[in-house]
Amino acid sequence: MVRMIFRSAVLVLVLFSMTTVSYGKDFKYVGVKKCKTCHKSKKIGNQYKIWSEAKHANALKSLSSPKALEYAKKNGIADPSKDAKCLNCHATYATIDHKLLDPKTKMTVDEGVSCESCHGPGSAYKKKSIMKDHKKSLANGLNMPDEKTCVQCHNKKNPFFKPFDFKKMVAKISHPVPGKK
Ligand code: HEC
Ligand code: HEC
Ligand code: HEC
Ligand code: HEC
Which atom of ligand 4 is nearest to the CA of 170? Predict the structure, then answer.
């Protein structure tokens, strides 16, 4: 009995330490399709398109690449695209506490690393009147990512780690609102 309690405590600890991204309790993850409804126009800078054509959006696919499969074989992982050891950084859906999923979300692992891994769960800030107001957005769960956000995943626990240069890497994923700042 004591051992069982101990074991579940360890399991809880493991699950907690696997959750790489955590924000305020009241905010729920809504999934990239929600962000897309407003962030796909040219006028706003089509952040959706920029993201969807780049590596983060395709991070789940990399877990089935020859490189991933070779690594998995050597390390006794049956299927990296289904294993928490890999999904943990390659898919937002797998990194978050599922209690924080909006009941209506259509988020799946296929989203890869999506907006909310960097910008925080969007249930409250996604309203247009709030989004237009920087301070209100921040108060409603919006995260403007800094290096700390990135190194939750860009760290040595990644078997293919490359030294992380924040400035260079931010430039690579740049998706500005035209004419802002
Ligand atoms: C109802 C439309 C709408 C939805 C849905 C929406 N946004 Fe926005 N978002 C906006 C508008 C409008 C702006 C302001 C753009 C500007 O500065 O002109 C904005 C701004 C932002 C900014 C910059 C905020 C700042 O203060 O600098 C981020 C980051 C952002 N959105 C992320 C997201 C994410 C992530 C989602 C999905 C969870 C999302 N948005 C959903 C309309 C929306
Ligand atoms: C939830 C985990 C996660 C977070 C948070 C994250 N990344 Fe990534 N990032 C990844 C994964 C996984 C890949 C590899 C995708 C692939 O190739 O399959 C990646 C790839 C990239 C790449 C492409 C690599 C290259 O050499 O072209 C860039 C650039 C990048 N990330 C920048 C950033 C920046 C900047 C931040 C913070 C603002 C960040 N990432 C936050 C998981 C994350
Ligand atoms: C700690 C977070 C993390 C974990 C855990 C993780 N990855 Fe990654 N992975 C990343 C990041 C970040 C990148 C992008 C690195 C870069 O380009 O700087 C990446 C890139 C990759 C790439 C592309 C590498 C390349 O050079 O083309 C493959 C393949 C990959 N990971 C497979 C895996 C597999 C398989 C696992 C599980 C055994 C795994 N990853 C676990 C974060 C992680
Ligand atoms: C890997 C992390 C990452 C992902 C994924 C990501 N963003 Fe961002 N986003 C950033 C960073 C970093 C900035 C720049 C923050 C700053 O300027 O302080 C930013 C800025 C923005 C801005 C403000 C641009 C401006 O000019 O002020 C908007 C809007 C935005 N993101 C929307 C999105 C949407 C929508 C998605 C998903 C389709 C998304 N982002 C996915 C990291 C990310």
Answer: 12
Cβ–ligand 1 contact at 128 (below 6 Å): yes
Which residue's structure tokens are 């990194």? 95
Are 92 and 111 contacting, i.e. CB atoms less than 8 angstroms apart?
yes
> Residue-wise over 101-117: b if at least 16 C-beta within 10 A, else e?
bbeebebebebbbbbbb
| Residue 105 Cα distances to 101, 132, 137, angstroms | 7, 23, 20
CA distance 29 to 108: 11
Task: Compute, in angstroms, the gap from residue 87 CA to the centroid of ligand 3.
Answer: 9
d(CA 33, CA 178): 22
Residue 170 sits at the vertex; the CA angle it makes with 86 and 61, to the nearest 5 degrees, is: 30
Task: Note the pLDDT tens digit of each residue in 72-106.
Answer: 999 999 999 999 999 999 999 999 999 999 999 98
